[in-house]
Specification:
- With 152 residues, this protein is mainly alpha-helical.
- It has one domain.
- The protein is built from four helices and two strands, in the order H-H-E-H-H-E.
- The chain starts with a helix and ends in a 7-residue tail after the last strand.
């Protein structure tokens, strides 16, 4: 599997996570806790699969640089540099929310998810945007892979 194929899998998993999160949010609002639980576990699994495929993609290609220039590159970097730290923050928050839900500590779970939900949905959506900008933006010639970092 090529780096761009793995990147497409990553973007798909981000998109799936977004829709599972949205479904989980709507289920909890509709007071359907069992559906909410299933959707959130599925979102957690999709995120874990994302992390695994992202690590493999990085091992295959190394760092991938945006091929655009000027204002477009500034937009890309703004999205990327907000996405990255929030993606890191989502991991412990998601683990904490899952732990609290499994322990039945729903008041504490709600306090965590008030922050987690908007952050995780932002990370999921911007992950897809980063992929689209990096691999499919018209007027760019595709991603620049920094092969030197891989010893090639």
């Amino acid at each position: 599997m090529t780096g761009s194929s793995l990147a497409a899998v990553n973007a798909t998993l981000n998109g799936v996570s977004f829709f599972l999160l949205l479904g989980g949010y709507l289920a909890v609002r509709a007071r359907r806790p069992e559906l909410h639980r299933k959707l959130m576990v599925a979102a957690f699994v999709a995120a874990a699969l994302f992390f695994l495929t992202y690590a493999v993609r990085w091992l295959v290609t190394g760092t991938v640089y945006f091929p655009g220039h000027g204002w477009l590159k500034a937009v890309y970097l703004t999205i990327l540099f907000t996405h990255m730290p929030l993606a890191i923050l989502v991991v412990p928050l998601a683990l904490r929310a899952l732990y609290l839900a499994l322990k039945g500590r729903f008041a504490a779970h709600r306090r965590v998810t008030r922050w987690l939900y908007p952050l995780w949905t932002y990370v999921s959506v911007t992950g897809v945007i980063v992929y689209l900008m990096l691999y499919h933006l018209p007027g760019t010639s595709g991603p620049l892979v920094h092969l030197a970092s891989r010893g090639l």
